[in-house]
UniProtKB/TrEMBL annotation:
Protein name: Recombination protein RecR
Purpose of the protein: May play a role in DNA repair. It seems to be involved in an RecBC-independent recombinational process of DNA repair. It may act with RecF and RecO.
InterPro entries: DNA_Rcmb_RecR, Rcmb_RecR, Rcmb_RecR_Znf, TOPRIM_dom, TOPRIM_RecR
Family recorded in the similarity comment: Belongs to the RecR family.
Gene: recR
NCBIfam families: recR
Superkingdom, taxonomy of origin: Bacteria
Length: 204
């Protein structure tokens, strides 16, 4: 693909690095931004820069946040007795959009995948165990809301074994309304909401 400007070529090259964006789509976006008001392009660039350099992760659940504690963990109306464990921040957003869950979360930051060299030590599993310990812990139920892929099931199995040491805590998993091999973020809100409401307790 030939470009009349090196600046356009550079912009297209960077945009094409985004997931799901091919070079033709990247070119269309670049030309759109070129024709847009200067303030529009500047606002976009500023928003992206602030997101990248100023966003933080919650000290408790590892959800994205503007402060040390995310808005969910800081909300006194949320049920701290129920912790929903997810692999990715996108899963938190997907579940929140259902409006069916009122507990708190714990974001693992991925799933166990030996092929990709990701083991339990690479995830936020130990901080989850720390949340369960101590006299101040309010946790009564842990929901494993992890995508039902091979890696997701491996992660859920590992977590179930680790959580068995907390005999007083119920371990449940979301109902399999989510298709096997699917990703939570792509599930429709009705199916995902029903999966949360009709979650199943894991056998010990």
């Amino acid at each position: 693909m030939e470009f009349p400007s090196k600046l356009i070529e550079n912009a297209v090259g960077e945009l094409a690095k985004l997931p799901g964006i091919g070079r033709k789509t990247a070119l269309r976006l670049a030309l759109h931004l070129l024709k847009a008001e200067t303030e529009t392009t500047s606002s976009l660039a500023e928003a992206l820069a602030k997101m990248r350099f100023e966003i933080r992760y919650c000290n408790t659940c590892y959800n994205i946040s503007d402060t040390e504690e995310c808005s969910i963990c800081a909300n006194p109306l949320r049920d701290r007795g129920t912790v929903c464990v997810v692999s990715d921040i996108r899963d938190v957003i997907a579940i929140e959009n259902t409006g069916q869950y009122q507990g708190v979360y714990h974001v693992l930051g991925g799933v166990i995948s030996p092929i990709e060299g990701i083991g339990p030590a690479d995830l936020h599993i130990e901080p989850l165990m720390d949340r369960m310990k101590g006299e101040e812990s309010e946790v009564k139920e842990v929901i494993l809301a992890i995508s039902p892929t091979m890696e997701g099931d491996t992660t859920a199995f590992y977590l179930t074994r680790r959580l068995r040491e907390f005999a007083e805590v119920h371990i449940s998993s979301i109902a399999r309304g989510i298709p096997v091999g699917g990703e939570l973020e792509y599930a429709d809100e009705i199916t995902l909401g029903r999966s949360i409401v009709e979650r199943q307790r894991q056998a010990r």
